[in-house]
Amino acid sequence: MATVPATTPVRSIVPLRPVAAAPAEPAPAPAAEAPPEPRLAGLAPASPRPAAPPQVPRPAVGDTPEPVADPGIPAVSTAAPAPAPSPAPATGQAEAVPLYAAALPPPFEAEFRLRRGALAGRASWSYAAGADSYQLSLQTRVLGREVGHLRSEGRRGPTGLEPLRFVEGRRGRDQRAVNFQREAGGGRISFSGPAVELPLPAGVQDRLSWLLQLAAIVDADPALRERGAEVSMWVVGPRGDADVWTFVAMGLEPVSRAEGTDQPALALRRDARRPWDTEVRIWLDPAARHLPLRAAWRIAGPDAESGIEIWRETLTWR
Asked: Cα 254 vs. chain centroid, distance in angstroms?
């Protein structure tokens, strides 16, 4: 797009005769503002933020969060208004959500086609399980080069996945991590970036584990596949953000496959709760333990981009 040069108005300035005046008293220095807190959507900090020592410079840790539909995929642009925070409960406790039985699948590897706007690529998703542990990874590639990865590892229990550590990495950027300290006085969530701790709600998931946890919950309970049924869980991101994601079942819908056929899949949706929140549409495969067949993420906002979509091409049980 051609750039139109701005026109600068020109006016004559007549010098004024200097006027002697008594020297003014120096104005007091403004008080230093505290750095803003990271976005906490519904969770109060588990412990107050320590005050910075006097006369010691400290970097800000509450920069405006970058809204990203999927942390494992590079954003097309990073400029966006800051999300509106939700008020934290006065008690400092997390909003309660139901706990569900979960039928975790056997280990697998899956390949997806990926699209974000004009960008096209591929995503590889793998799940490995031990006696009571798990490892999840998602790698995204564009033009054959890795551009992002997500990793989640933790424990497996009667209610499904219990993350202990989540790592997000992108090409050309430092990694971000979330630590789920389940043995620390009732549980705490800490971050490699924001200097804040959150209480650890029951059933909480990270920005990768929720995808498998949702499939395992729906696979375990046929009642949750009925139109209008809801599944809620806490989801935590690496920028100090935490929110309840509630998925509503929309019934079976056809999903187009690469070979030109349609396959019925259970559609669920997660609507945004506020501007610049994450909106999700996902289609689960009843023929493959309700693992995702297609999924789409986007940021809800007046100037939001089209978001990310993935379509499963292959699934291999290990």
From this structure: 27
pTM, to two decimals: 0.74
Quick one: three-class SS letters along the chain?
Answer: CCCCCCCCCCCCCCCCCCCCCCCCCCCCCCCCCCCCCCCCCCCCCCCCCCCCCCCCCCCCCCCCCCCCCCCCCCCCCCCCCCCCCCCCCCCCCCCCCCCCCCCCCCCEEEEEEEEECCEEEEEEEEEEECCCEEEEEEEEEECCEEEEEEEEEEEEECCEEEEEEEEEEECCCCCEEEEEECCCCCCEEEECCCCCCEECCCCCEECCHHHHHHHHHHHHCHHHHCCCCEEEEEEECCCCCEEEEEEEEEEEEEEECCCCCEEEEEEEEECCCCCCCEEEEEEEEHHHCCEEEEEEEEECCCCCCCCEEEEEEEEEEC
Report pLDDT digits (tens) over 270-315: 999 888 899 999 999 999 999 999 999 998 876 666 689 999 999 9
Tell me if 142 sits within 8 A of 113, measured CB to CB: no
Residue 176 pLDDT level (bands cut at 50, 70, 90) = very high
- The alpha carbon of 241 is separated from its chain's Cα centroid by a whole number of angstroms, namely 8
Please give the Cα distance from 313 to 294 (Å, whole number).
10
Q: Tell me: the pLDDT tens digits for 3-49?
A: 444 443 433 333 434 444 444 455 445 444 444 333 444 455 554 44
End-to-end CA distance of the chain: 51
Which amino acid, one-letter code, is at 129? A
HEC assignment per residue over 245-270 = EEEEEEEEEEEECCCCCEEEEEEEEE
Amino acid at 109: E
For the chain, percent of residues with pLDDT exceeding 90: 57
If you search the block for the tokens 């995702």, which residue do you land on? 292
